Amino acid sequence: MGIQFTTGPDGNLYQLPDQQFANLYWFRKDWFDDADNQAAFKAKYGYDLGVPVNWSAYEDIADFFSNDVKEVDGTTIYGHMDYGKRAPDLGWRMTDAWLSMAGAGSKGEPNGIPIDEWGIRMEAGTCNPVGASVSRGGAANGPAAVYAIRKWDEWLRAYAPPGAASFDFYQSLPALAQGNVAQQIFWYTAFTADMVKPQSEGNNTVDADGNPLWRMAPSPHGPYWEEGQKVGYQDVGSWTFLKSTPSDRAQAAWLYAQFVTSKTVDVKKSHVGLTFMRDSTVRHESFTERAPKLGGLVEFYRSPDRVAWSPTGINVPDYPKLAQIWWQQIGDVNSGAFTPQEAMDRLAEEMDITMARMQAADEAANVYGGCGPRLNEEKDAEFWYANGGAKPPLDNEKPQGETVNYDDLVARWNQ
């Protein structure tokens, strides 16, 4: 399934996909289906309790479960889960399409053109990034990106369990198994295997027969988002063979790669890890039988929607050099050292400074094969707002909440 994501702009296949998982929305369907909860939510907010289509609805639902429902079967519950520990995985939390889910990027699939999910601009038909800052035509510190970081910070403080702000990636996602959270806007399907374990292994989100009390669905989008924009991140872990690898080792690795990605092995591997790679595996009869116990995973990967979630795009000229900037700046928001605007201004500037160094190296020694950055001259924000740069600030960042019935959503997938 992931071949389209490992094929370069030149049409060459650069990597062999081995597994993939997406970040989706996760929620407690049993709590959402409760008649009393439905009535109380409708009375308070004026629309139905369901899968949130936009961030306004997600926020309303988080507030409702945290401050109205408050307790289920004697246990205090919360309307939201996330993480904020100052660590490298906090960077993934944001670069994995969070800004584009808010609406910061441009229209275009699998990634925005010319502005991608990192806020980096690269003109169509070129291979040279021209900047991340609003002043260079990017959007990493634009209104939509700042809104995205502000909402992450606000929700973490207001609606998540105590201590969540100090969780990392590895602590936050399995924490849902405790059974005290109503929803999570940014949940990786790689953790499905943990969420379908039996009650005897400490999973409080399945019933006595092992049936999930939760479901997964598409994540909602922010107010800056437009139809045709990227809707979320999908990781496609792939085999990569380096030119520097000795020939005999490369050949041995290639044989093993073919083995582990073969149809028979992939079916078995996918039943264990639940990170599919082949379309034939997703449609295998064994997964038709198992689908009711996997909370919507099979239905999602059998649907045409799956291609709308995509990995980091080609606008990012050097992932390791740029990714390390993210978690440090976002960590300063969580600590209270900087406001979201200040942090994103610093992040965008540091990305541009780093890309300027790449540009110098590429121009001097062809380090990036001629595809290194070529930064734009700086212009004021108003120029770029009017000329295809970052989106200007909205007068209203909280439009009316909108939800969809989960069963109707799955029916559409099945069609």
What does this entry show, briefly?
This protein has 415 residues and is an alpha+beta fold. The chain has helices spanning 29-33, 35-45, 55-69, 88-95, 98-102, 143-159, 169-172, 192-195, 247-260, 263-273, 279-282, 285-290, 297-302, 319-334, 340-365, 381-386, 406-414; strands spanning 16-28, 51-52, 71-72, 75-76, 183-188, 214-217, 232-239, 309-310, 403-404.
Order of helices and strands: EHHEHEEHHHHEHEEHHHHHEHHHEH
Backbone shape: globular
In the CATH scheme, what's the topology name? D-Maltodextrin-Binding Protein, domain 2
Mean pLDDT: 95
Number of domains: 1
* Main sheet summary: 5 strands, mixed
Tell me the name of the CATH homologous superfamily. Periplasmic binding protein-like II
Second rung of CATH, namely the architecture: 3-Layer(aba) Sandwich
Give a count of the beta strands, DSSP E runs of length 2 or more: 9
Give the CA-CA distance, first to last residue.
19 Å
CATH secondary-structure class: Alpha Beta
Percent range for β-strand residues? 5-15%
Structural class: alpha+beta
Radius of gyration: 22 Å
Overview of the molecule:
- By secondary structure, the chain is α+β, with helices and mostly antiparallel strands.
- The chain has a single domain, classed as 3-Layer(aba) Sandwich (D-Maltodextrin-Binding Protein, domain 2).
- The protein contains 17 helices and nine strands.
- The chain has helices spanning 29-33, 35-45, 55-69, 88-95, 98-102, 143-159, 169-172, 192-195, 247-260, 263-273, 279-282, 285-290, 297-302, 319-334, 340-365, 381-386, 406-414, and strands at residues 16-28, 51-52, 71-72, 75-76, 183-188, 214-217, 232-239, 309-310, 403-404.
- Strands 1, 5, 6, 7 and 8 form a five-stranded mixed β-sheet that branches.
- The protein starts with 15 loop residues before the first strand and ends with a helix.
